From TrEMBL:
Belongs to the copper transporter (Ctr) (TC 1.A.56) family. SLC31A subfamily. GO terms for molecular function: copper ion transmembrane transporter activity. It comes from Sphagnurus paluster. One of its GO terms (cellular component) is membrane. It is found in: Membrane. The lineage of its organism: Eukaryota, Fungi, Dikarya, Basidiomycota, Agaricomycotina. This is Copper transport protein. InterPro entries: Cop_transporter.
Length: 179
């Protein structure tokens, strides 16, 4: 005996009565597509376009946030090297120390403090969480959503990855890594 429960994929979709259209095959569904939950129910072409454009910018923001995490790592390493250099006779580039006998010493390996590691973990948490949600959205195999993710990642990486390739700072590039 059925107790009046709705067994459709979309459930009760509100006033329009249209159920969510969910496909795990490549599709271009616009109206009545649902993403992640019934609350993200696309009821018009304009809402679909808004979702696609919003996702495009979310991916760009994710890439910018990744850049911010790299900049933070560089900042705390620079501070560590500066503290070490202040305790010894600083070399020309500030990262190596020359002693009276002419020998050169490099700073000891850097290990973040608990507070610094908590901030680094927050950067990772946001990146991992956003990446996971974007992956779940891509699993709907909706062409517009996937293209927004792909093009957003291209534009985001293009805009935010102008920092030094390979992560090595040289005396010539020190201070020139941002923007």
């Amino acid at each position: 005996m059925d107790m009046g429960m709705d067994h459709s994929h979309g459930g009760d979709s509100g006033a329009s009565g249209a159920a969510c259209k969910i496909s795990m095959l490549w599709n271009w569904t616009t109206v009545d597509a649902c993403f992640l939950s019934e609350q993200w129910h696309i009821r018009s072409v304009g809402a679909y376009v808004g979702s696609v454009i919003s996702l495009f910018f979310v991916v760009i923001l994710l890439e910018a946030f990744r850049r911010l995490g790299r900049e933070y790592d560089r900042k705390i390493v620079r501070e560590h090297n500066a503290r070490y250099a202040a305790g010894t006779a600083a070399g020309e580039d500030g990262s190596l120390s020359k002693f009276a006998d002419g020998s050169i010493s490099t700073p000891p390996p850097f290990r973040p403090s608990v507070a610094q590691q908590a901030i680094r973990s927050l950067f990772y948490f946001v990146q991992f969480s956003a990446g996971y949600i974007l992956m779940l959205l891509a699993m709907y195999f909706n062409g517009g959503i996937i293209l927004a993710i792909f093009f957003g990642s291209f534009v985001g990486f293009f805009l935010s990855s102008w920092d030094t390739v390979g992560g090595q700072l040289t005396p010539e590039t020190r201070g020139q890594t941002c923007c």
